[in-house]
Write a structure and sequence with these properties.
Elements: H1 2-22, H2 26-39, H3 42-48, E1 58-65, E2 72-78, H4 81-99, E3 105-118, H5 119-127, E4 137-139, E5 147-148, H6 150-155, H7 168-177, E6 189-200, E7 206-208, H8 226-242, H9 255-271, H10 275-290, E8 293-294, E9 300-301, H11 310-326, H12 333-343, H13 352-369, H14 372-382, H15 390-393, H16 397-408, H17 413-432, H18 438-457, H19 466-479, H20 487-490, H21 496-499, E10 504-505, E11 511-512, H22 514-538
Antiparallel strand pairs: 1-2, 1-3, 3-6, 4-5, 4-6, 6-7, 8-9, 10-11
Length: 539
């Protein structure tokens, strides 16, 4: 009996020791020390002043995530930034000892400005703001007893942009989930604040975050060079690959979306080929091809409800043609020829967007076959295409189509004119848009590529001011970062691994769509492909 009790006691001791290791906060301390070196540097202290958080003095936040769950946020205040820092670290450490969270991502936010705003003023501000774009944290009392970061407020939909003000139910749901005290009544006055932020990632790399502007709270990447853009493409491609079944299907998609994903993955593969891409891409291509059916007359069609339009035919041909080019395989040539036959029919191309997509697809088909019938069809499809209003359509296909067509028909001035007019007419609109718009980056970069081809061929660029186009490309390349789920944004979502690396629409409640992700991949791919030439054009 004694031996049995001793065994049980030994097991209990082992469990306790194991628990002690599991809840050790040394890793958190290591990361906070790395953050301290940046966040409490001399220049930061000088910028903070005496009491940036008002009556609370100084306020420091720590957001901690193990990379799989929503970040827990801890904060502390103090008469000095050092006191606030230590109080915040202490509060976080006490909670982490109980929760056992292994800190993969640790983010610190140091309040640098705060001001009072009435409930009515906050309501008006939200009503007049684009959804998701009020980039201020909010304290519900002057002492910061209840305070939430901007990322918390927007990710948990506590900011109510539709009705204005704070959604009390959403607030308390979030506070309960965060194991914090609920708020019974909303105050008549709030303290809105902004922070200087830094994040320490899973590799202990520390990134400084934007403290203002449209990129508030997102890592600083100036400029967005080709290496950075290639990394964005790889991250988004990894997201897509996580959602590909063993059969090559993207769950819940139709034919057009399947073709978009295939084309986007091929762009990623050309930038950064790796074993997983080379394994997944053929599966996606095969699934897309096997989804084709034939009617009694031998015409191809796609069984899904939206699968029989010029856009679907064009994207399928373009994606499969790109696949055959990149993988040097002719296996879908007959299928592409059959689908291409549908694109040669004028009645299949009802809109300018349809015609532009048809031009692009037929050019890709000509490129891999050398058969002039496809190029002739592209030329016919190009007839009647007009400059598009980007604000209404957000369509890059006109630029893509003309860029592709001029590769094979370099002596037709009207194609260059259309591409450059399309960019010039929409340049200000695209550059000024506060929301992310990946099609805009693609449109401008495709126009630049066309411009280079035109000048190399000997065409005149009179009346087209290149520096403005280059500036627009820079603006869009940076603006698209606002839609990327970097760890500092993903950590506030319900399931960080599900969105990490993906692109979202902040104005659509951080919604992730395949179209947005694919357009970002394609646009940044084109940007990378032209990055060196863009740099040379500035000289």
């Amino acid at each position: 009996m004694k031996a049995k009790h001793l065994c049980l006691l030994a097991a209990a001791v082992c469990l306790c020791v194991g628990c002690g290791r599991e809840y050790d906060t040394a890793r958190f301390r290591e990361k906070t020390e790395l953050l301290r070196q940046e966040a409490l540097a001399d220049w930061v202290r000088q910028e903070l002043g005496d009491a940036p958080a008002g009556d609370a003095g100084h306020a420091v936040f720590f957001s901690v995530s193990d990379g799989t769950k929503t970040a827990s946020v801890y904060y502390g205040t103090g008469a000095s930034v050092d006191e606030a820092w230590e109080n915040s670290v202490s509060n976080a450490e006490e909670a982490l000892k109980k929760s056992g969270t292994e800190p993969e991502w640790v983010k610190t936010d140091v309040v640098y400005i705060a001001g009072k705003i009435s409930a009515e003023e906050l309501k008006e501000s939200l009503l007049y703001s684009e959804v998701g774009f009020l980039s201020y944290g909010a304290a519900f009392d002057p002492e910061f007893q209840t305070a939430l970061l901007e990322q918390e407020l927007n990710a948990a939909f506590v900011y109510d942009y539709e009705n204005g003000g704070i959604d009390l139910d959403a607030l308390n749901t979030y506070l309960k989930k965060s194991k914090r005290e609920s708020v019974k009544d909303l105050p008549d006055e709030y303290i809105l604040f902004r922070c200087a932020g830094w994040i320490c990632d899973e590799k202990d790399a520390v990134y400084r975050l934007n403290a203002s502007g449209l990129g508030y709270g997102q890592r600083i990447m100036e400029p967005v060079d080709d290496t950075a853009a290639a990394g964005l493409v790889s991250g988004a491609a990894e997201y897509l690959m996580r959602n590909i079944s063993q059969k090559g299907e993207i769950s819940g998609t139709n034919t057009m979306q399947q073709a978009e994903v295939l084309h986007a993955l091929l762009c990623a593969c050309q930038l950064s080929p790796n074993a997983e891409l080379k394994e997944k891409i053929p599966l996606v291509a095969k699934y897309l091809a096997e989804n084709v059916s034939y009617d009694s007359d031998g015409n191809v069609f796609f069984p899904d409800e939206d699968g029989n339009t010029a856009a679907v035919y064009a994207l399928t041909v373009a994606a499969l043609a790109e696949y055959m080019d990149v993988f040097e395989s002719p296996e879908y040539l007959e299928l592409c020829s059959n689908i291409g036959g549908r694109l040669l029919s004028a009645q299949e191309q009802e809109t300018d967007a349809d015609r532009s997509m048809a031009v692009y697809a037929l050019c890709r088909l000509y490129d891999i076959t050398g058969e002039t019938a496809w190029l002739d069809g592209a030329v016919r499809a190009a007839e009647g295409i007009e400059v598009q209003d980007y604000l209404q359509r957000q369509d890059f296909w006109t630029s893509f189509a003309m860029n592709e067509l001029t590769k094979y028909v370099p002596d037709r001035a009207e194609y260059y004119v259309l591409a450059l007019e399309n960019a010039q007419k929409n340049l200000k609109t695209v550059s000024d848009m506060e929301i992310t718009s990946p099609a805009g980056l693609g449109m401008l970069t495709a126009a630049f590529e066309t411009y280079v081809r035109m000048t190399e061929y000997g065409g005149s660029a009179d009346g087209f001011y290149l520096p403005v186009l280059l500036e627009g490309i820079d603006v869009r390349a940076e603006r698209q970062l606002n839609g990327c789920f970097f760890p500092e944004t993903a950590m506030y979502m319900a399931n960080p691994p599900d969105v990490l690396g993906a692109f979202m629409e902040r104005e659509n409640k951080f919604g992730v769509s395949l179209e947005t992700i694919c357009q970002n991949i394609e646009s940044y791919y084109l940007y990378c492909r032209n990055y060196a030439a863009i740099g040379q054009s500035r000289e």
